Amino acid sequence: KQQYNDLMIASLNNKMIKKPSSSAVLLALGLCLAPFAQGIKALAPRLGVADKLGRQIEAINESGGPVDIFWINSNTFEENLMGRAVENGRHLPLNSYVGHIFEVRESPNPETGCNRDSVHQLCRAERFKVTEDDANIQQIFRITSDFSVGYDVEYGNEVFDDEYDDDEYEDEDDDYVAETDSEEPEEFTCDEGTDAKDSEELTYVRVPSLKVVENMRPPGPRSLCRDQAKKALERMSLGPNIDAAEASNAFSEYVSCVEANATSELLGTNEVLSFQEAARNNVIDYFENYTCADFHLPTTSPIRNATWINKDKTYNVGILHERPRSKIHVIADFITDEECQAVENAAKPGLHVAAVADGTGGSTVSKHRKAMQAGVKVAWDKEADGDLIARLSRRVYDYANHVTGLNFRENGQEELMSIQYRGRGINDTEPDRYFPHCDGDCDGLPFKFGQRVATMVLYCTIPLKGGATNFRKAGIHVQPTKGFGAFFSYMDSDDHIMDEGFTEHSACPVVEGEKKVVVQWIRYGVDDTNPWDSFNSLGFKISEEY
Question: What is the largest CA-CA distance in the chain?
Answer without folding.
Answer: 87
